[in-house]
Design a protein that fits this description.
Layout: H1 3-22, H2 29-36, H3 40-47, H4 49-73, H5 81-98, H6 100-109, H7 115-141, H8 150-166, H9 168-174, H10 184-200, H11 207-215
Length: 216
């Protein structure tokens, strides 16, 4: 790793930590530089200040996020729509868990209607919607999924995927899952796959078969 890459990584790690504890507005560039143990001028040079750092964090997170969706989408010709959708869910949950600190920050930020967030998110949201809609429509066409509005399903699915990072306390109280724990991905994946099975799927298999599939 180059000196530039190491410096940028240290700044990003420090920024995410501070933004999560003090908030974006409550964190200064000097505090980030101090925690990262870099010269404050490096933040201006590499990120064009705090706003540029925010944009970089959001883009960094969603670049990886979209790649995980694409991995499932690219198998749509080989797998069933249900298999692609469940793979997509597992990929996203795993990615979010591996990057849970930045996921927590980014999801909070995109809930704010700012010009920066709107501009950055337009491209990623369009891609995500296209991939999800294509998978869902294939499932409906092949009679794997019920005839529902794709946008309705996407909104519900997105809500469940983001929930652990927007409302961790609620997840703990209601589902008794902790997003920071190692077993989280497997446990929460089963919850979402159960939702897919009972809400979206046209033909429902016996419950014992579903449980065996979720454990595999």
């Amino acid at each position: 790793m180059t000196v530039k890459a190491k410096t940028k990584e240290k700044v990003i790690d420090a920024a995410v930590s501070l933004f999560n504890t003090k908030g974006f507005d409550g964190t200064s560039v000097r505090e980030i530089a101090k925690k990262a143990k870099v010269n404050v001028a490096n933040i201006s040079y590499y990120f064009d200040g705090k706003e540029g750092l925010l944009e970089s964090l959001v883009m960094l997170f969603f670049e990886g996020y979209i790649k995980e969706i694409e991995k499932a989408y690219q198998l749509l010709d080989k797998l069933s729509a249900k298999e692609c959708l469940t793979m997509l869910v597992k990929n996203i949950l795993t990615y979010q868990h591996e990057h849970r600190h930045i996921a927590r920050f980014v999801y909070r930020e995109i809930s704010l209607d700012t010009i920066l967030i709107r501009e950055v998110m337009t491209t990623y949201l369009t891609k995500e919607k296209f991939y999800l809609k294509t998978i869902l429509e294939k499932g409906m066409k092949e009679r794997q999924f019920r005839k529902l509005q794709a946008s309705f399903i996407i909104v519900q699915l997105k809500g469940m995927l983001m929930m652990p990072y927007l409302h961790p306390q609620y997840m703990t109280e209601v589902l008794h899952v902790f997003s920071h724990e190692q077993y989280f991905v497997e446990q929460y994946r089963k919850e979402i796959e159960s939702w897919i099975h009972y809400t979206i799927c046209l033909e429902r298999e016996p419950m014992n078969k579903v449980i065996l599939q979720l454990k595999s």
